[in-house]
Amino acid sequence: MVERSELHAGMTVWTHRGEKLGHVIEVTDEELIVEKGLLVWRKDYSVPLDDVREVIADEVYLNHGLDSLLSGPREIPRPARRTTH
After folding, report:
1. Is there a domain that residue 25 lies in?
2. Is residue 84 assigned to a domain?
3. Overall domain count for the chain
4. Whole-angstrom Cα distance, residue 54 to residue 2?
5. Separation of alpha carbons 57 and 30, rounded Å
6. CA distance 75 to 34
7. Which of 31-35, 65-69, 72-76 is the least confident region?
8. Which domain of life is it from (predicted)?
9. Residue 66 belongs to domain with CATH number
10. Which of 26, 27, 41, 67 has the most CB within a 10 Å radius?
11. 20-53 pLDDT, tens per residue?
């Protein structure tokens, strides 16, 4: 199992097939919060630390693919954007 101390914001996250998933934006005691997408299509996902296969330099490799991440209730709602008039 990967140690929490090996993980930090800004790391690139890859699936087990080498597909880029996104970037770590937060690390808690139990999970990574991964930001995927660009601008309007950006979404945050919770990835349990147990799903991390290995860490090499500033890259995190998961033991599953994107389909596994998207099939569960792992999406985290983003705060509503404030608009000014």
Report:
1. yes
2. no
3. 1
4. 6
5. 21
6. 9
7. 72-76
8. Bacteria
9. 2.30.30.240
10. 27
11. 999 999 999 999 999 988 777 788 889 999 999 9
